[in-house]
Amino acid sequence: MKARLLALLILGTAAAAGAADVATTAKQPAASARAYGIAMVVPGQAGAGAAEAIAPGDASTGFADAFLYPADGSLVRTGALSSSVSARATAAPAAHAVTDVLTGSLFNGEITFESAAGRAKSDPDGTDAGGSAVTGLTVLGKGIEATPNQRYPIGDWGFLVTLEQAVEAGAEGSGDARVSVTALHVTLTAEHAGLPAGTEILIGHGEAATSVPKVEAIDRKTTPTKTVPQKPSEPAQAAPRRPRPPPLPRPPEPLPGLRLPGPIFRPPPDISVRLSPAGYVFPMYGNASYSDTYGAPRATTGWHHGTDIFAPLGAPVLAVANGTLFSIGWNDVGGFRLWLRDRQGNQFYYAHLAAYSAIAVNGAEVRAGQVIGFNGNTGDAQGTPYHLHFEIHPVSLLAMGYDGSINPTSFLDAVRRLQDVSLVVGRGWAPPVPASAQAPRPGAFLLGASDISSASGLEPGSLQRALVAPASAEGDGALLQSG
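Request: output the structure for the sequence above.
Response:
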C-alpha cells in the first residue's frame, strides 16, 4: 500500500536492440493527478483514509466532513476534508491536484494544526507546489512554522516532515515530469499509543504528472528513404540506436476502502449553516434579480439545489471568493458549468454559463470579484430566460455529496454587489457545444472587444481600463469573436 501511495510515474530508458524495421513510436501525451485528505499506513493492519480524488478515473472530487481513527478519534481526528483533481491529456498536457484539511489532532493533542493544504501542478512549463501550506501547527505544545521538507523529531518515538515535496523528471528531452507534496507526514520510529513502529500518517497529499514524448515514429517499411552511397574508402556505418521513450504516467490506484457517500434525493431538513458575508461578493456583475426557489421540485435533479439569478445574456459572472476553480466543462444538466472552492473548503456551483473567461481553467487560483464566465442558458435551461444557477455546499456538509447544499438566498442578500462600471461587451472561451444542444452558440452573441478576465470588480475602474485592450485570437478554446 505504501508503494501505491508514493509511486505514480515510472521513469526509465532502454536501448533499442539493433536496427529495427520500425523505429520507436512515440505515444500520445498523457496526464494524471491524485489527491487525498488523509491516509494511514499501519504495518500488519488495514489502512485508512478519506477524501481521495483521482484523474483520469471515476472520481475527480473527494470529500468528508471528518476523519476519526479509531472510531472515538483518540489517535487521529480531523475536521472537514476535501480534494479535487484534473488531468488534460492534450498536445500541452496539464494536471492539477488540490486538497484541504481543516483542523486536526493526532495522538490526543500531541500534534495539532488548524489547516493543511496540498497543491500540485504539472504542465509543459514545469512543476509547482505553490499554495501548499500548514497553519497553526503545534508539536508537543510547541508552535512550529511549516517550511518545505523540514524534519522535526517527536519525542523518542517518531518524526514529522512539513510540506514534504518531491519533483521528478524523465530523461532529457522526454517531457516527463511529476511533482508531489504532502502537507504533514508523520512517521513512527517506535511503538506509540498502540500503533507499531513504521506507521505513517500522511495529511494533505497531492501529486500531478505529465508526459510529452518527443520521439517521432518512423516506419522504414512504408517511409521512402534516400540511399547515399558510401565512398569506397569509408566503411558502411550501422544505423544509429534510438532510445525508447519512458513509460507514460499511469493512473494511480485508489486507496482501498475509500468510498464516496451515496446519493440523497431530498433537501437536507432544517439545516442552517452560518456563512459570513465578509470576503464574499455577489456572483453576478451588474443588474440581476433572484427569488427563493431552493427545494422546489425539478425533473432532472429531484429538487432545486440552489437559486437562479437572472441577468442579461453575456453578463459577467464573478468568483464569489478567493479560491480554486475545478470541474470546468459541459454536462447535459448544467451546460457550461464550474465549481469554486474557497479557502475554508466551502464549494460553490455555477451552471448554465454561455462561456468562460480566459482565466477559467481547472486548478486556477482566483480572487473574489474576478470574471470567470458569462451568463447564459445552456444545458437543461435551454429555452428559459438567461440565468445563473448558483449553489452553496458548505464544507461541513460535503460528506452528503451533491445534496449537501444550503439555501443561498440569505447569503445572496448579504454579500456585496459590484457595479462600478456599466459593462456592455466582453470576450471569453467555451469548449465545443454538443450537437444536441439548442441554445445559441456563444460566438453569436459575445463580441470580441476586450479581455476583462484579469479585471476585478472589487477595484473601482479596473473593468473600465480593461475595456480599452483590443481583442484577438480565433478558434475553439480561444477568445470568441462575433459569429
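DSSP finds three helices and 28 strands in the chain.
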